[in-house]
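chain below, 185 aa
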Amino acid sequence: KALIDSIRNAMVDNFSLILNQIPKEPISVDEKGTLTIGKHKIRLGHQPKSLYYLFLNYTDGILTNSLDEYEEDLSEIYFTIRHPSTKTLKNNDKNNIKGDILNVKKKEILEAVKKLLENDSGYKRFLKEKNSINKEINNTLGEKLAEFYMINTFTENPDKYYKINIEKDIISMDNKYILKKSKIK
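prediction:
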């Protein structure tokens, strides 16, 4: 048993060394919301893309049992992705003209996000979205490189986090997808 454990540990250590030697590709989100990892475009729907951008904003991770605390942040990102032209309105007159329409859109998005992050059935929906994101990244980048960019669960006793295991300095996002600094913990 000791011999098998020794061999296993050596293989795991070597695999870790190999993974660390793979150069990490930069992640970029342009003004249109297009997600690119290196030279690969990642094609995601509105909701999975919003979820991924949330994790790009919180590179330290999100506690698995605290997802519902990020409802407002996710709603903001989701709204920006679904309605990019209305998000950038600066003029009060434009806001007044479109105010009612925006409120309806915001309510729709808030409901969708709330269902995604609910602790009961929504948690299953979150896992489904997370898995679809990871599958698309894996299919596009390949198994070895995708490992860095997928949303995974990490344990730091006693807490468990969901996070993308990358450094913040390789992420480049258009300002409208970056959450206000006061919100980032």
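Strands lie at 27-29, 35-37, 40-42, 62-63, 151-156, 159-164, 171-173. The chain is about 55% helix and 15% strand.
thats it, cya
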